[in-house]
Amino acid sequence: MLTVVSHGKILFKTNRHQCLSSWRKPIKEQPPIYSQTKASLFRRIAAMVYDTFLIFALTLGYGAVLLLIKVVFHGTQGLENIQPGPILQWLSLLGWLVCISGYYYICWRKQGQTLGMKAWRLRLQQQGGDLATPRQCLIRSCIAPLSMGCFAIGYLWCLLPNQDDCLHDLFSDTLVVLLDK
């Protein structure tokens, strides 16, 4: 029996087994409660501008890998005269798109935020507050560039009356919410 005494008063009594077993129990952390305030178009665009700098860095890294591959296969002599054929150019473009989409996929699946979204306190989530599923992230990665490419109609969709979400949010069944401070 273990007795804890302070200033002559018994605070509690317990046996050694109960005391040790309570230390072994994992503490259940409550999931953070995120607000359901949907992100404004301004915040979304600001986060995209922030992410553009990171995408530029990823593009430079991808280009360096392609250049390294070209040097390995052709050497450095007359390198500027060697141009890849159309199939290799399309494969290079496809690889770049996979690289950029992979960045968004990993960020959205891991934390629900890209670097720009963290700076502007935005989070991608499902309707119930959980992180987006892999399928939702893939759909969003494919549709979001199309939303921007078609005169940004997919982003401007949220400005219509009775619409709070962009088109890629609707198609992927996700939300971009503003986090509390």
Secondary-structure element string: EEHHHHEHHHE
Q: Give average pLDDT, whole number.
A: 85
Task: Quote the distance from N terminus to C terminus.
Answer: 47 Å
Number of β-strand runs: 4
The largest pleated sheet is described as: 2 strands, antiparallel
Overall, the morphology is: flat
Approximately how much beta-strand content do the residues carry? 5-15%
What's the arrangement of strands in the largest beta sheet?
1-2
Report the radius of gyration as a whole number of Å: 26 Å
> How many separate domains make up the residues?
1
> Could you estimate the helical fraction of the residues in percent?
40-55%
Q: Quickly give the structural class.
A: mainly alpha
Query: How many DSSP H or I helices?
Result: 7
Weakly predicted, low-confidence segments = none
